Amino acid sequence: MIDEDEDLLGVDPPQLDPEALLLCGLMWAGKEHPPSDEVCRILEPGDFDDPHHGRLFGFLASRRRAHQPVDPASLGSALSEMGDSAPLPRHTARRLLLELTTLHVVPELVTDYADQVLGMSYRRQYQAMAAALVHASEHLPEWELFPVMVEHGRAQRAAWKRRQAFRTRESE
Q1: CA separation (Å) from 131 to 115, 125, 151, 152, 155?
Q2: CB distance 15 to 23 below 8 Å
Q3: How is domain 15-171 classified at the CATH fold level?
């Protein structure tokens, strides 16, 4: 029998969180891992629902592009060296790195987790678009409604193309 803690409902533990699993895989992938390079090229910090995950991903991806080490110890050291200019506060970075390094993810799964992160990001963007259109329908003058819908539609189409490009690349 599973005891459901109401405080945890809707919150995935790191072992079930594709964002956490992706970050773990990227940290353990090593310097010569083309799938990780591709993931860091396609995904963006804004694709992550957890802002700490997004900031860590952005930092990790920039280091990977610069051919700098992205293992947990190197990331922790680099973040610590940055002091207050680091993308994450020191205590947050330390806790997050410790949590992520213990997940035991194999680097071969980074593209699978990246696909899940990108899919969830696309869905959140869609939900935000729907909410923005509802808001527009209630507050904007009628002549502004169609242009607003077109603007949101174009942004969503771009997000869809990005999502599909990643999936198409994966199936090749």
Answers
A1: 24, 10, 14, 11, 14
A2: no
A3: DNAb Helicase; Chain A (1.10.860)
Side-chain half-sphere of 163: how many Cα atoms within 13 Å?
18
Buried b (16+ CB within 10 A) or exposed e, 4-26: eeeeeeeeeeeeebbbbbbbbbb
Tens of pLDDT, residue by residue over 76-130, are 999 999 999 999 999 999 999 999 999 988 889 999 999 999 999 999 999 999 9
Instruction: Give the Cα separation of 4 and 143 in Å (integer).
Output: 49
Domain ranges of the chain: 15-171
Q: What pTM does this model have?
A: 0.85
Nearest to 36 by CA among 61, 54, 53: 61
* Residue whose structure tokens are 């997000």: 159
Q: What is residue 1's three-state secondary structure?
A: coil
* Paired tokens of 52: 């700490």
* Long-range contacts from 58-62, C-beta under 8 angstroms, 24+ separation: 58/87, 59/86, 59/87, 59/88, 60/23, 60/26, 60/27
Residue 11, both tokens: 């919150």
